[in-house]
Design a protein that fits this description.
Helix content: 25-40%
Strand content: 15-25%
Order of helices and strands: EHEEHEHEHEHHEEEHHH
Largest sheet: 9 strands, mixed
Structural class: alpha/beta
Number of strands: 9
Number of helices: 9
Length: 265
């Protein structure tokens, strides 16, 4: 039996709502075979004074080699990479394996406020990883950081950001406007020529942990099934919107997107 195969290179989120946990749940729900390479263990809590534990470069490299040699991904997604060295290693392996369909979620800040990309790694991300991407999926804050510009505050400013981000080398830019107040949940997809505005109703909830990871993972899954970038993004937006509509609250701060919601609906 043949099945589309995808690999996520990202952090492991102990609470289960984001990172590779969100990615693998999304892959399963969308009927693709998911693999993972863990870059860091993220375990923020109130008991210990450390919450992020990066993995050795040899471990990151070995996981990626194993996924390619034993299965072979059709599409690859990156999430939290955290350090300059990890970005360099991952970027080099993407070039070595000549994988063409790469979705880059430039994860920088977690929903709980954790810094998930070191400041000195941003230039490396821009110069070495973004040019390899088929699609990049920054949220508003990430768009501002990547451009060293103010965070977009309107759809028009999002369109400006998409144009500027496209100059960094990715084929497609998806600027996500889920946090934009006073507007519907609007995202902007730009391929260098066509500007597509995708809109859905805004869901009034704080329980959106993992939404960005889930969105980019759903895009990855749909690309692996042969969809065009626009088709993949539209399906992924439906998927993540459903996951937010019936998000899971655990009565302890920000809850999780519900990865089973799209199927159950």
């Amino acid at each position: 039996m043949s099945i589309p195969r995808v690999l996520t290179i990202a952090g492991s989120a102990a609470q289960g709502s984001a990172g590779i946990q969100a990615d693998l749940k999304t892959f399963q729900e969308l009927d693709v075979y998911g693999m993972s390479a863990v870059t860091a263990l993220v375990a923020n809590n109130s008991i210990t004074d450390r919450g992020i534990f990066t993995q050795p470069l040899e471990a990151v490299e070995a996981q990626i080699h194993a996924s390619f040699e034993h299965v072979g991904p059709d599409v690859l997604k990156t999430g939290m990479l955290f350090t300059k060295d990890i970005i360099q290693t991952v970027s080099g392996l993407i070039r070595d394996y000549k994988i063409k369909q790469v979705v880059v979620d430039p994860v920088m800040i977690g929903k709980m406020g954790s810094q998930l990309l070191k400041d000195e790694a941003i230039t490396t991300l821009i110069e070495q990883l973004l040019p390899s991407a088929l699609v990049i999926t920054p949220n508003l804050m990430e768009a501002g950081r990547l451009l060293n510009a103010p965070v977009p505050q309107s759809p028009d400013e999002m369109k400006w950001a998409a144009r500027e981000l496209h100059k960094l080398g990715a084929d497609y830019v998806l600027v996500k406007g889920g946090s934009l107040e006073d507007y519907p949940a609007v995202d902007i997809l730009f391929d260098g020529e066509q500007m597509i505005e995708l809109e859905s109703k805004r869901v009034n909830t704080i329980h959106t942990s993992g939404a960005g990871c889930t969105y980019s993972a759903a895009i990855t899954a749909e690309l692996a099934k042969g969809k065009s970038v626009e088709e993949a993004v539209r399906k992924a937006k439906e998927f993540v919107t459903a996951a937010i509509e019936v998000a899971l609250s655990f009565d302890r701060g920000i809850g999780s997107t519900n990865h089973a919601a799209f199927r159950k609906r």
